[in-house]
């Protein structure tokens, strides 16, 4: 339709695939503080985001893995 009317057209795309997997925890906490979320809530969310996890295979625990990016879904 734009071509028929000799009008310019602009198309923009945004790929959000894996967006939640790549958000740094520090950026989330910083955004909460910047938006004046109360400090107790920021602390709670920060504690939920941080922590160490590990892989377990046949009852044997692997080395600890620190996760710094991504949010719980």
List the helices and strands and how they pair.
Layout (H helix, E strand, L loop, with lengths): L24 H10 L4 H11 L2 E2 L2 E2 L2 E2 L3 E2 L7
Antiparallel strand pairs: 1-4, 2-3
Helix pairs in contact: 1-2
Distinctive features:
73 residues, elongated, single chain, alpha+beta, two-stranded antiparallel sheet, 2 helices, two-stranded antiparallel ribbon, 29% helix
What features would you describe in this structure?
With 73 residues, the chain is an alpha+beta fold. The protein has a domain at 20-66. It is built from 2 helices and 4 strands. It has helices at residues 25-34, 39-49, and strands at 52-53, 56-57, 60-61, 65-66. The strands form 2 sheets. It has a two-stranded antiparallel sheet. Strands 2-3 form a two-stranded antiparallel sheet. α1 (25-34) packs antiparallel against α2. The longest helix has 11 residues, at 39-49. The two termini are 41 Å apart. The mean pLDDT is 83. It comes from Trichinella britovi.
The total count of helices amounts to 2
The arrangement of helices and strands along the chain is HHEEEE
Beta-strand percent range: 5-15%
Structural class: alpha+beta
Shape: elongated
Cα Rg: 21 Å
The unreliable regions are none
Number of strands: 4
Overall mean pLDDT score? 83
Helix content: 25-40%
Give a brief outline of the structure.
This protein is an alpha+beta fold and 73 residues long. The protein is 29% helix and 11% strand.
